[in-house]
Amino acid sequence: MKLYAPWEKAFKKVSTPFENFLHAQTTTGLILMFMTIVALIAANSQFAEAYKHFFHTEISFGFGSFGISHSIHHWINDGLMAIFFFIIGLEIKREILVGELSNIKVAILPILSAIGGMALPALIYIGFNGNGEGANGWGIPMATDIAFAISALVLLGNRVSASLVTFLVALAIVDDLGAVIVIALFYTSDINMISLFFAFASFLVLVSFNRFGIHAVLPYFLVGLGMWFFMLESGVHATIAGVIAAMAIPSKPKYAPANFTTHTKNLLDEFDNYPVATDHMMHEKQKAIVQNIKDKIDSIGAPASRLEHTLHLPISLLVIPLFALANAGISIDFSSIKDTVAQPVSIGIIMGLIVGKVIGIAGVAWLAIKMKIATLPQDTTMSQIFGVAFLGGIGFTMSIFVADLAFLGNEDLIFQAKIGILTASLFAGVIGYILLKYIIKPSNQAE
Question: Per CATH, the architecture of 27-58+69-188+237-254+301-439 is what?
């Protein structure tokens, strides 16, 4: 292919690897880690007050007598995170329709393991906090951070099989679904039934769009935005609107791809029949043919898959980093850190994310395999499932999110929860990585 721009070749040497890096599975985890460190440094430096003041700055939107005003922190957690939950909804839908969760024989092991990895941490937490002021935080250690966990697994390279990565992805998707259900049912304030009715009506409109075969994204966006607002006003956490909206996005293309190749070849032949106007410009007829080809490409792509692909970078580079920056910045008094970690809330989270996740995931998987309910993934050993179970104890993003909901307005308990989450996630990630990298043999080396 001829390069017209004089610097294009040199630029491609830099831009192409960078694009590959941005789309890699490890990118979100690495950026998340970096922004967490930045937030912790900012909160424990001379800029601590400025950092705190910035995220408490109010931002208002309105017209006429109508207006809505929240802090930057609130807009991130209730607004931008709705987009994150929208992506989670699209991933859940895809996995159920055509992914690992579509085949019950393959899906049963990660489903059961995910349930065990949610139930046991919650029970352990309740054991430490059942009668205390932190009792409402039982949902915090249930979550697995898919970005961190998958990043750690991918960094292991050929030490782990593709089927083991798939197992963790399916497990994390089920885990996310469980977290969404828990937030919707148990971490909801007083319900405004009128607003909830309008949110439900908005969802029905989205479903109607789907049933009428509307594949343009804009109508879904406008109605989905309205549903988010009504959900925000209803008392049900607004991010749930993201998941619900994702369920209504069409997952099938407008036209079957069967004749795509034939039609495209015909258009390309027609394209070649017209001489180019100049070395750098196309004939007007050729422009129309190119647009026709583009329209056909769009018509065989499902809106759900297009949105999932399009939103990947904004979520990775904007939403998740901003969430980490806004929520991970906790001021740590190292002289009293031992006392904080010893609090029931912190202990419950640490024990839940490390002990509960490992026993819940690996233990249930072992029982399911022994009872012949499920089978071990191909090229995977039970020891590797044990190592992956530790990675399941990385509960960063969703755990912090649930902590803010569970202890709304109680800064002391939120602080204890975040200390517990950071401590447990660090230990779980390091232990899991070391086990899989240096101790547990890959399946092709196991005796």
Answer: Up-down Bundle (1.20)
